[in-house]
Amino acid sequence: MKVALINPGTDQKYAVQEPLNLGFLASFLQANGVDVIIIDELAGQDIARELELYKPDIAGLTATTPLADDAYRAAGICREMGILTVMGGVHAGVMPDEALKHVNVVVKGEGETALFDIIRDDICGGIISRPYIKDIDSIPPPARHLLQMDFYVRSKSRTPHSYLYFVPTEAKTASVLTSRGCPYSCIYCHNTWRGTPTRYNSPERVVSEIADIKKDYGVETIFFIEDNLFVNKKRLRAICELMIDNNLNVLWGGNSRVDNIDPEILALAKKAGCRQITFGFESGSQRVLDILKKKTTVLQNKQAIELCNEVGIIPQGTFIVGSPMETLEDVRLTMKFIEESNIESAGICIATPYPGTQLWDWAKENNLMPETYAWRDFDYLNTPINLSPAIPKKELMALIEKVNILLAIRQKGRVNVLSAIKDIVREPSKVFTILESLIRNPRLVINLTKRFIAQVFSRLP
Ligand code: B12
C-alpha cells in the first residue's frame, strides 16, 4: 500500500514552516510498514506530477481554513486519477460534511491511528475519528527526510516578517512540536485538542530530536511551535538543563502565555539558548481581554515584556483588534500599549471567527454572517465577518498601519538608523505618520539617537 500525503496551497505567505503534522503521520505510517511520501505544493512541488511518478493507492490532504479550497482542488486531481482520497487537519475536523463532498474519507481529530486504520481495514468512505494517543513519545519524530527541509530551513530569508524575528537573516531554522493540547479556552482559538489532556514529549526525546535536526540539516535555530511551551515549567526546566548539559548550542524561541513566565525560568531558558518568546498579548484593553476569555491582565502583558527585556530575551507578540463589542477606544488602548512598550516585533490581526471557535458561534448568534464568503479570506486581515461593526474598518486599518510603521522604525533602527532615515525620506507619503509616531514616542527618539551615535562611531576606524 502506497500513501501520498499532500500539503496543498500556492500562497507563499503560508509557506513559513514545514508541515510537521504530515511529518508525524508519515513517521507513524513508516513505523507500521507503510510506504509513504509527502508532496508539498506550498514548497513548490507539483501535485499532479508527483502523483503520476509515485502512483499512490491513497492520498491524504491537510488544510487550515484559508487553504481549504486549495485542498479541495487537490482532492479533485487525486480523485480524477482514481486515488482513494482522505482529508484531515483543522478545517476538515470542524467542517467534516463540507469536506466529505470533495473527498472519500474525512478524519476528525488526531490522525495517526485513524489513517493507519483506513489503510489496514480498507475503509473507503465516511467520517471517522479515533481516540487520542496517550503517550506521544510513541509517535516517532516527524519524518523530516520526507519534507522539503532545504526550502524550509531558509524560511527567515523568504519570510522576514514572520514569527522568526530572532533568527539571524542567513541562519538556517527548523521547528519542533513537543506537546499537544492547551488547557485554556480563549474564544478565538481553534483548539484541535479540546477535550484531551495536554500531552508532552519527554525532555530526553525533545533534546535528542533537536540534536538530530542540528546534525542532519545544519540548523542553528529552532522554534517550538506548540501553543504554550512554558505551561509545564517542570518539563521545560528539565529540557533546558539537558540542553545545557549536552552543550546543544542552538538558539531557540517558543510560544507562551504572559502569566506562565517568571524570572527564574527565563534566566534558565536564556542560558539554554532561548532568544525569543512569542506571547499572545491580544489587547491593551482589559475589557477586551475579558471578552476574549484570555484570563490575563494588561499589567501581566507589560510585566512579561519587562521580564524578557531584563534577561535579554526578545518579547514578540500578537494582538487582536476588532473583537466582539470592541470600540475604537479599546483599539486605541492596544495601539498605545504597543507604542509605550518597546517591543520591536508584533503581529496585529483582525479578529477572525474560524469555524469551531466560540467566536464563530458568536458571529452566528448575532447574525453577523454574510450570505457568501470565501475561506481564503480567513487570513487575519481580510476576514469577511465583521465582529465589531461599531469600528469603521477604514479607521481600524489606518491605526494598524500606523503601528506597523512604528514597529518598522524600531526594527530598522536596531539594525541601522541611517538606513531607516533613508527609507523614511524615500516614502514621502509616510513622512507625516512617521513624524507623528516620533513626536508621540520621545523614548523611541532617545533610543534611536543613542543607537545612531553608537552606529556612526562603530564605523569610524
Ligand atoms: C504551528 C502553527 C502554524 C505554523 C505552521 C502551520 C502548519 N501548516 O503546520 C505557521 C506559523 C506557519 C502557521 C500559520 C498559519 N496558521 Co497556524 N497554527 C500552528 C499551531 C500553533 C500548531 C499546528 C501544529 O503543527 N499542530 C500539531 C499537529 C500535529 O496538529 P494538526 O495540524 O492538527 O494535525 C493533526 C490532526 O489535525 C490530523 N491531521 C492533520 N492533517 C491531516 C491529514 C490527514 C490525511 C489526516 C488523516 C489527518 C490529519 O492529524 C495530525 C496529527 O495528529 C496551531 C494551533 C494548534 N494547536 O494546532 C495553529 C493553527 C493551526 N493555525 C491557524 C491559522 C489560522 C493559521 C494561519 C491561517 C494564520 C494566517 N492568517 O496566516 C496560517 C496558515 C498556514 C498554513 N500553512 O496552513 C489556526 C487554524 C484555524 C483554522 N480553522 O484554520 C490554528 C488552529 C490556531 C488557532 N488556535 O486558531 N500556523
Q: Write down the CATH class of the largest domain.
A: Alpha Beta
CATH topology of the largest domain: TIM Barrel
What binds here, in terms of ligands, is: cobalamin
From the N-terminal CA to the C-terminal CA, the straight-line distance is 67 Å
Q: SS-based structural class?
A: alpha/beta
- Form type: globular
Q: Please state roughly what percent of the residues sit in beta strands, choosing from under 5%, 5-15%, 15-25%, 25-35%, 35-45% or over 45%.
A: 5-15%
* Total number of helices: 19
Number of individual domains: 3
Describe the fold and architecture.
There is one protein chain. By secondary structure, the protein is an alpha/beta fold. The chain has 19 helices and 14 strands. The protein folds into three domains: 2-136, 3-Layer(aba) Sandwich (Rossmann fold); 162-413, Aldolase class I (TIM Barrel), CATH 3.20.20; 416-461. The chain has helices at 20-31, 47-54, 68-80, 90-94, 96-100, 112-120, 149-152, 155-158, 203-217, 233-245, 263-271, 286-291, 298-311, 328-340, 358-365, 393-415, 417-426, 428-440, 442-459, and strands at 2-7, 35-40, 58-62, 84-88, 105-107, 126-128, 173-176, 179-180, 199-200, 221-224, 251-256, 274-282, 314-321, 346-350. The strands form three sheets. It has a six-stranded parallel beta sheet with strand order 2-1-3-4-5-6, sandwiched between helices. Strands 7-10-11-12-13-14 form a six-stranded parallel beta sheet. The protein has a two-stranded antiparallel ribbon with strand order 8-9. α1 (20-31) crosses α6 (112-120), α10 packs parallel to α11 (263-271) and α14 (328-340) runs parallel beside α16 (393-415). The structure holds cobalamin. Residues 14, 16-17, 19-21, 24-25, 60-62, 64-67, 86-91, 93, 107, 110-112, 114-115, 177, 189-190, 192, 225, 227, 354, 379-380 line the site of cobalamin.
